[in-house]
């Protein structure tokens, strides 16, 4: 074959001018021999008008998978018609696996696979080839694409991806019943050879099951397989490729098949007669025995229902099914008495609840057994003649009066005497006593029906021969009523009448209540007392049904004249002896509208003017309060403004300037108006010198220590100095306090510059040095300046 490929290559070179042709070594494929034509401009060799043949002709390349040879596996050969064999053409390869899986000889164009390939991992590779001029590095042909397919070999066995399998089929199924379908997958190429052709077979599990070799469907192979004989089957399935031929690869899996139950077996009693022994003291409803029928089926097919066949003694017993054990539980419906009957016999039938019609021919799905019950004699407690005793007694019955009796007997063969006593549970039981031998019940205290109308207690009867055997019975004693309480109004009524009421108008319906209880029911009568019958205000109308109506007898009532009316009403009962009581009903007069709707019943409303409601009065009072608040606020604001005008702010250290409309005399006109008079009209205007004229003589101020003339001011200033010097929170700077008025005849005179002397020489500042360290700077500034009379103007 290699010789034939080389010959084909030579023929192409000779007859077709050296077209690029892939040479494939595989015997299964025949390479394409016909070139495809295309107009390709090749500069330097042919003109653009020449018709040229394309230099690439492609088929698919094939490479064998799992190649284990020592040399790289030859894939094929690439050749260009421009390659003259002188080494001027270079072949390049790119794409999937280029350089890592496949290599190309740059000079000859031979392609090799340099490692083993797996088709199941990657079935084909897409690569691109190109011929390049060695000198110019320019492509001689357009880049073309080709595919290298990996040719499959049988290297994968079939696998059951879903195994092992679990299946079930009903028991007693016919031959060929479907069980399960298995499927094996082969990773080999299904389009190439028989590598992926799988055939199924059973290695283990015959002759019970069979399998279709092509589809893998498992079916039953034997009829009437019984679950009660064998329930579980394990089948081993094999899948083999190459069509099952010798040399094929195989895989196996396990199928666990379970036969499901059907109701093909009826219940059966293991014996025909069941013997039970039951004490006569057994309680009604208690279980006295169990019987069981056996059913080899499973689940709901084994559920059994038990029934008692009507017959001797069947009405004294009942039978139910225990759902957990499927046993028949026999229960007692009525009490047993050994002295009356010592044995009972009846039949019990067991049957399936869920029947399968396919197996009706087998026979009836039920079974019958006989049950014999022997009653055992027991030493029983005494039996009372009644289940409950009811007695009656009148209240206030004398102590010791017998009101009834209870009776109990010992029904056993050796009859024993009976003793009675009260089962003490609370203090109520102490109202009665019982005779221990006779069983008579008598009162022990006086009874009051209004306190307790009924007594309920228990009496115990025990055998003298065996005190532990005792029985108990309830005794109910009803206390009958004796008429001893008068009737009264049932509830306190709030009755009102309108001022505009008409005569005969019903204003209240009243009822009565009596603490006594008459067996026939009480009947009450209502009437006014004798003193109220003569008053023309209200009357009582008895309706003869234990109710009465209060009616008006006047045309209108006045709250101003009388607000409250007290109406005495006499109520009588119908028992013997007759009891009566007088009850006072309070009636309030109210103001109503024309429809009779009550508007006001308050006393204060009497004095309100007609037509003026409470809401209007509240609105008027609210307006008056608001006006008073406005007036108070206005007066307070006026006073605050006047005070602010006369007072000087403590933080303002400047002189107050008061503006007047009249024009002054200029800068030196200080005598036109004395502002000190505004501050204190009582200031004595002594030694006033006009600054607008030259004085005749100059008078120098004399040094007068302020402490000698006025000790109060000095003490006050010294006290403030000491307080500020000792105050740790005082600021580090001097504080200036401005006083608007120093008082009449003050030696210190005014500190204001407005009232100062004419010249600075008139001031004597030597006393500042006596004021302490805080005034040292001021004393140095003003005290060191000497007086110069030439500077005075």
From TrEMBL:
This is Cadherin-12. It comes from Lepidothrix coronata. Keywords: Calcium, Cell adhesion, Cell membrane, Cleavage on pair of basic residues, Glycoprotein, Membrane, Metal-binding, Phosphoprotein, Repeat, Signal, Transmembrane, Transmembrane helix. It is found in: Cell membrane. SUPFAM superfamilies: Cadherin-like. It comes from the Eukaryota. Residues 80-160, 161-269, 270-384, 385-489, 489-607 form the Cadherin domain. The chain crosses the membrane at residues 606-637. Cadherins are calcium-dependent cell adhesion proteins. They preferentially interact with themselves in a homophilic manner in connecting cells; cadherins may thus contribute to the sorting of heterogeneous cell types. GO terms for biological process: adherens junction organization; calcium-dependent cell-cell adhesion via plasma membrane cell adhesion molecules; cell migration; cell morphogenesis; cell-cell adhesion mediated by cadherin; cell-cell junction assembly; homophilic cell adhesion via plasma membrane adhesion molecules. Its main location: membrane. GO terms for cellular component: adherens junction; catenin complex. The gene is CDH12. Gene3D superfamilies: Cadherins, TCF3-CBD (Catenin binding domain).
């Amino acid at each position: 074959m290699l010789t034939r490929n080389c010959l084909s290559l030579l023929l192409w070179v000779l007859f077709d001018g050296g077209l690029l042709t892939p040479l494939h070594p595989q015997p299964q494929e025949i390479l394409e021999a016909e070139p495809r034509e295309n107009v390709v401009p090749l500069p330097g060799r042919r003109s653009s008008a020449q018709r040229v043949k394309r230099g690439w002709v492609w088929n698919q390349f094939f490479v064998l998978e799992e190649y284990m040879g020592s040399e790289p596996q030859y894939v094929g050969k690439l050749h260009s018609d421009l390659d003259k064999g002188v080494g001027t053409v270079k072949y390049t390869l790119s794409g999937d696996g280029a350089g890592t899986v496949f290599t190309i000889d740059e000079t000859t164009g031979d392609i090799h696979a340099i490692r083993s390939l797996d088709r199941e991992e990657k079935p084909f590779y897409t690569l691109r080839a190109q011929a390049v001029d060695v000198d110019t590095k320019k492509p001689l042909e357009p880049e073309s694409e080709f595919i290298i397919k990996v040719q499959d070999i049988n290297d994968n066995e079939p696998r059951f991806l879903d195994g092992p399998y679990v299946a079930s089929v009903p028991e007693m199924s016919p031959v060929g019943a479907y069980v399960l379908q298995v499927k094996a997958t082969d990773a080999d190429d299904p389009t190439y050879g028989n590598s992926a052709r799988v055939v199924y077979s059973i290695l283990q599990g015959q002759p019970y099951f069979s399998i279709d070799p092509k589809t893998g469907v498992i079916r039953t192979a034997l009829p009437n397989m019984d679950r009660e004989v064998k329930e579980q089957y394990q089948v081993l399935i094999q899948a083999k490729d190459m069509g099952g031929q010798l040399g094929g690869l195989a895989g196996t899996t396990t199928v666990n098949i379970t036969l499901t139950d059907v109701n093909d077996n009826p219940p059966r009693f293991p014996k025909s007669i069941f013997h039970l022994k039951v004490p006569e003291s057994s309680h009604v409803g208690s279980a006295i025995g169990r019987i069981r029928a056996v059913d080899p089926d499973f689940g709901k097919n084994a559920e059994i229902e038990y029934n008692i066949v009507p017959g001797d003694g069947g009405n004294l017993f009942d039978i139910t099914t225990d759902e957990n054990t499927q046993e028949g539980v026999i229960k007692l419906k009525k009490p047993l008495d050994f002295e009356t009957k010592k044995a009972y016999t009846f039949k019990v039938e067991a049957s399936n609840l869920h029947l399968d019609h396919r197996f009706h021919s087998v026979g009836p799905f039920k079974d019958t057994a006989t049950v014999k019950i022997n009653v055992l004699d027991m030493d029983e407690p005494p039996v009372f003649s009644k289940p409950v005793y009811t007695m009656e007694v009148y209240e206030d019955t004398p102590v010791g009066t017998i009101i009834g009796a209870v009776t109990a007997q010992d029904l056993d063969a050796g009859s024993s005497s009976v003793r009675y006593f009260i089962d003490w549970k609370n203090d109520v039981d102490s109202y009665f006593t019982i005779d221990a031998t006779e069983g008579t019940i008598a009162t022990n205290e006086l009874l009051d029906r209004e306190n307790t109308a009924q007594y309920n207690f228990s009496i115990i009867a025990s055998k003298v021969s065996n005190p532990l055997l005792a029985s108990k019975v309830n005794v109910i004693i009803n206390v009958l009523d004796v008429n001893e309480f008068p009737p009264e109004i049932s509830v306190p009524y709030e009755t009102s009448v309108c001022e505009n009421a008409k005569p005969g108008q019903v204003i209240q319906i009243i009822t009565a209540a009596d603490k006594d209880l008459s067996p026939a029911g009480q009947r009450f009568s209502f009437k006014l007392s004798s003193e109220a019958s003569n008053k023309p205000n209200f009357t009582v109308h008895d309706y003869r049904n234990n109710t009465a109506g209060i009616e008006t007898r006047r045309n209108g009532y006045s709250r101003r004249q009388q607000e409250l009316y007290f109406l005495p009403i006499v109520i009588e009962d119908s028992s013997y002896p007759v009891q009566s009581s007088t009850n006072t009903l309070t009636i309030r007069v109210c103001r109503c509208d024309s429809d009779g709707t009550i508007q006001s019943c308050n006393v204060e409303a009497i004095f309100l003017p007609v037509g003026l409601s409470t809401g209007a009065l509240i609105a008027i009072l609210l307006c008056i309060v608001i006006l008073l608040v406005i007036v108070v606020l206005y007066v307070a604001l006026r006073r605050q403004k006047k005070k602010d005008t006369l007072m000087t702010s403590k933080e303002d250290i400047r002189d107050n300037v008061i503006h007047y409309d009249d024009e002054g005399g200029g800068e030196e006109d200080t005598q036109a108006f004395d502002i000190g008079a505004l501050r204190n009209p009582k200031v004595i205007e002594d030694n006033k010198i006009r600054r607008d004229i030259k004085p005749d003589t100059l008078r120098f101020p004399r040094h007068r220590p302020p402490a000698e003339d006025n000790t109060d001011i000095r003490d006050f200033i010294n006290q403030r100095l000491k307080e500020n010097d000792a105050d740790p929170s005082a600021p580090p700077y001097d504080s200036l306090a401005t006083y608007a008025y120093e008082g009449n005849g003050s030696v210190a005179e005014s500190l204001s510059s407005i009232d100062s002397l004419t010249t600075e020489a008139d001031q004597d500042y030597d006393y500042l040095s006596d004021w302490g360290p805080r005034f040292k700077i001021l004393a140095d500034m003003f005290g060191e300046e000497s007086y110069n009379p030439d500077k005075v103007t």
